[in-house]
Structure formats: C-alpha cells, structure tokens
Amino acid sequence: MHNINQYIEHTILKANTSHEDIDKIVQEAKQYQFKGICVPPFWVKKARNGLGESDVQLVTVSGFPFGYNKTETKVFEIEQALNDGADEVDIVWNLSAYMSEMNWVKQDIARCAEKLHDHGKFLKVILETAYLSKEGIEAGCHICKDAGADFVKTSTGFAHEGAKVENIKIMRAALPSSVGIKAAGGIKDLETALAMIKAGADRIGTSSGVAILEEARAL
What is the fold of 4-217? Predict the structure, then answer.
C-alpha cells in the first residue's frame, strides 16, 4: 500500500514523554507525511508550534487513559486542547458508567462532540475493547454514533490488550460509513497495520509509524 502513511497517527503517549520526544515525533511526521501525530495534552502547544503550516493533523487525548472523569472535566480538557491548537481529540468513554448500566454515557460523549464540532474539529471515542464482549463493542459503537462521534477507536494502549482484527470487523459492521474507525494498541509492523486497514480501519494509531513506513518502502 503506497499511501499507508496517510493512515498513520504517529503516537507518543507514554508517561515519561519528554520535549525531545515531541521534537522527534513532529520532525518524523513532517518527513514521512503522516496523517497526524497524537501527543499528551501538556505538549499540544509545543507540537502545534513545531508542525507550523504542515498538513499533519494534531491529535491529543481527554479523559485518558481510564475515561471515568466527569463530563465537565473532559469538556474543559477539550477546551484547553483547542486553545493550544489541537485538530482532533480522542476521549476515553466512561466504561465504568457503561458497565454500571448508567444511561447518560451517550450524553457524556455528546457534550464532548458538541464542543469540538462547534470549532469544526473531530471527536474520536476510545471504547477500550479489551474489556468488552462482541455485544458490548456493538452497543458502544451505536452509542458513539448516536452521540455524534466522528471516529470510534479501539484502545488506549494501556489495557492488557490492544487492537484486534476481529474487533475492527465488529466495529465496521456496527457503524455507518460516515463514522471512521481508529485501530490503536500493539500495532508495530506493516502486516498488522494492513490487516487492520483491510478489516475496516481508517486510521492507525501507533508509536511504530516510522518502522511501518520503512518496511512498506522496502517492499
């Protein structure tokens, strides 16, 4: 696949991320023309300055990595991210509330979507599929769609399991074509990335973007 770089969100969300790491990921994203980079909220402004006028999308996270923050906290994080220059925000849905059968999970996502859409920006919602059954993934996708999510994402990368091809297929079947899918968590090589795309992923979140692209170029 000659354009796999345009699927990749080059990601660094580890706890000990340094400013040198941000400089490196920005430089690599511009060099390899990745679709985007995904960085911690603290580093959004620096990354924005580094990206300048490039076409690379700047993505950050909210409610990360567990999602059980209150809605007001997530909305505040989104506001700050927008002020700092983010193009998209990946929020972690409130899995704790969902598992407790609380019906306001949809409203939680909808308020975050509204905040981003008011600024013409995209919302991705992380389900953390490692903790969900097939039926739970389907239900989560329906909630995200109804709440206005632009993308549904598999994983934070912090659970015991990341993206799986079978879960991407479940998500694609459950979502309309107007809602994208981001596969993330444990995608470290070209074969895995291509399998996710074939299954229906529109974006690949990975910290191994350079290695994947170099592998593709060597074919």
Answer: TIM Barrel (3.20.20)
